[in-house]
User: Fold these one by one.
Assistant:
Number 1:
Amino acid sequence: METQNSATDKPSNGVSMEKTNGTTSNIKGSTKGLFNGGESVTSNGGTQVTRSQDSWEEVTIEVPWGTVQGKWWGSRNKQPILALHGWQDNCGTFDRLCPLMPPEIPVLCIDLPGHGKSSHYPKGMQYFLFWDGICLIRRIVRKYGWKRVTLMGHSLGGALTFMYAASFPAEVEKLINFDIAGPPVRSVERQAETTGWALDKFLDYETLPETKVPCYSYSEMKKLVLDAYDGSVDETSVKYLLERGMEVAPQHLSTDGYHFSRDLRLKVSLLGMFRAEQVFAYAKRIRCKVLNIRGDPGMKFENPQIYDEVIDILKENAELVIYKIVPGTHHLHLVTPERVAPHVNEFLLQA
């Protein structure tokens, strides 16, 4: 597992860029070599030259609790699409889709706090994923000074981009979400039943000694992820999540193998969930152009009818809503990106 020990340039705005080959450039740096060697699928079945698989740079964004890490695909001279991954995933979830997208449109894929290579929250702080995530998007938008942003999200990331588009309706131009319409709705009874358990688990994880953190071989780790995702990812795609989702066990532990890099406390980070009325109220505020791609069979939601109800509300209030059902798993953008890319590209270039 590659660790974050390379030197980076750190401009005064708190954002640094790290080239995968060890050379560095800041946001205003050269884009040489970023548009070579690839092809993408267009909506009419043709192909176009696009980014290669390694046409990205590591990004470090300074935040009060540490850093948010990410991968910037394409030119640093243009405002990018901001892309957010799902719960307990990382920005590697977009590694197979980004090379198929228009090369002239950059994409910044970030690791959410506690995920991938981004800093964990300090001890004593809980993750309230939905509310924290909206503020993180705002923090990044303000740091860069972006205007009229385009957002892209999968699962949790899609719920966050939905909430941001509702909270700042005049400042979002386009919204692209995969297999999520808005924040998932949980019954209040279920939340009441699990609150005590979640708080105890949070405290247990917070005080878990480093020596007790599970350590696995690469093959064991891959099998664990495949089993946990229950068919949503496959042998080919899981490696993209593991590249940022695992790290070598520290030498002082004298243990060979890998740990998951994500914060264990994320497992109990779903307090503060939404009621249907809240989701509908936010949906009514969204005004931007929306592309929603739903997997078939996709995710099994606790309240599946909410998805269609949110889409209907969006159609009544947003400037444009394109709703596509595409064969695929919940991770269809990662497992079968060739099915997703034509819809995304047409929406970006023509909508």
Number 2:
Amino acid sequence: MYITSLFACAGSGVCIFLGQISLVISLVFNMFVLSELKDTVRIAPELFELPLPEAIKDEINRKLANKVLNNVGLCIALQNIVSLGDSIILPGDGASHTEVIFRYIVFRPIIGEVITGKIRSCSREGVHITLGFFDDILIPPAVLQHPSRFEETEQAWVWEYPLEDGGKHDLFMDIGESIKFRVTGEIFEEASPVGGQSSDKASHSSSSASTTEANKTPYRIFGAINESGLGLLSWWAQDNANAEEGDEEDGQEDENT
């Protein structure tokens, strides 16, 4: 599998092309993937004084850290270098080029995984979640707890929790609240930078196209909270407390008998 384009950090609005990288293998560990990648790394002449492995590590992190790799995920940090090939210098280029196989830690939760984040904002589009290092998570209205409504004045979604007497109690999804959700889908959106053109009209067209490309979100995650136990942690805190009290009472009764 060959990956031909990389994108800047999700949500940053900047797209860059970083060349051809091949994905060798991936191992999944709760939200994160350990991906084995292969790339040809260019080291500029001014970095020749550094040990080659150190210079390559710095260049790989500069190239990948906090970037989205299409169909792989958000690159977090270099784990280790697996192997280094021979270094060559191409005609007309004083830099060295080395084929490298390395392992990189990538954020890419699996479908069905349950994650806890915080509410970043709410809109009619749904509830927007942040994990601190990744912001492009959306819970659409159709998969919120039912029934829910959007309060324009508060700019918040509200779960109309049904009461036993037939009434309802409004539970607001406020910004900053911790929320547990299940991952239901993901979208990678590929984009490439647009080259410059000579005429003013062409330059304007190129600028508009570049803006459109830059506004694309390279990696988005979709979630759902329409299950018991999902949603704001505060919703279920009382239930958990009552369950623990019940377990303690049962234990005391068993001891007494």
